[in-house]
Amino acid sequence: MRIALVGDRSPGVRSHVRVPSLLEALRERDGIALDPYWIPTPEADGLERFDGIWMLPGSPYLSEKGAVAAARTAREHGIPFLGTCGGFQHMLLEYARDVCGLRVAHAENEPQAEEFLLTPLACSLAGHEGLVRLAAGSLIGRIVGAATTVEAYNCSYGLNPAHKRTLEEHGLVFSGHADDGGVRVAELPSHPFFLATLFQPELAGDGRRPHPVIAAFAAAVAERAARPAVGRRGTVSGG
User: Fold this and answer.
1) pLDDT of residue 63
2) Residue 217 near residue 4, CB atoms below 8 Å
3) Could you please report the per-residue DSSP string of the chain?
4) Do residues 185 and 197 make contact, with C-beta atoms less than 8 angstroms apart?
5) Within 13 A of 43's CA, how many CA atoms are on the CB side?
6) pLDDT, tens digit, for every residue of 32-41?
7) What was the pLDDT predicted at 122?
8) What confidence score (pLDDT) does residue 125 get?
9) Positive or negative CA dihedral for 34, 40, 41, 42?
10) What is the mean pLDDT of residues 94-122?
11) Is the pLDDT of residue 167 over 60?
């Protein structure tokens, strides 16, 4: 079961450092042995051969284009996708551009652009924890098994609320919010597993027990890998 770990690997990114122990815990605790391949964002084209795509934190990425391409590959080919922090932001960017037809930018990547999908948060969440309220019946709600969760962040950019309705009208579901209404989780119900969180589940606990979101992603990868190749073909769109 091969997964693409999309991100510009760095020992300075805590989430990156924790990945090996999380993968080992998945093998020991859940019996899911994932074969990881770190894919730098400039090389993130042509990921159709993978059983799962996990876009990790660490933005600004070396290649916005590569990160967006990875999210599009997962969405169109029905490949289980987990995007965290920067992965959340670039999944939204891909969806806004390729599904909704919006001409929008990430303020961190293109500060001189005319219209932004991702903008600075009113209060930076870098190094903070926060309460997330989960929508009943949503994928994230079923995974966590509770109406709320407290999660760790290390980010300063989030969804511009001016574009939220357009994304929803095209099929994306925002299933986790902060108390101030800010979006924290997005998912695509028409896809086998397409989930992104602004928080970093990699930072939960001591790193020896995978966050339920990571465990659910691994289970979705295993399910896809177990299906005959013919059953994996086809594309998944939004809306």
Assistant:
1) 97
2) no
3) -EEEEES---TT-HHHHHHHHHHHHIIIII----EEEEE-GGG-S--TT-SEEEE-S-PSPS-HHHHHHHHHHHHHHT--EEEETHHHHHHHHHHHHHTS----EETTT-TT-SSEEEEE-SS--TT-EEEEEE-TTSHHHHHHTSSEEEEE---SEEE-GGGHHHHHHTT-EEEEE-TTS-EEEEE-TTSSSEEEESS-GGGSTTSSS--HHHHHHHHHHHHHHHS-GGGG-S-----
4) yes
5) 10
6) 999 999 999 9
7) 82
8) 83
9) negative
10) 96
11) yes
Question: Can you tell me which residue has the tokens 């939004």?
Answer: 238
- 139, 129 Cβ separation under 8 angstroms: no
In degrees and rounded to multiples of 5, residue 54 shows phi and psi of -115, 110
What is the rounded end-to-end Cα distance, in angstroms, of the chain? 29
Report, as an integer, the average pLDDT of 58-63: 95
pTM: 0.93
The residue assigned the tokens 């990425």 is 61
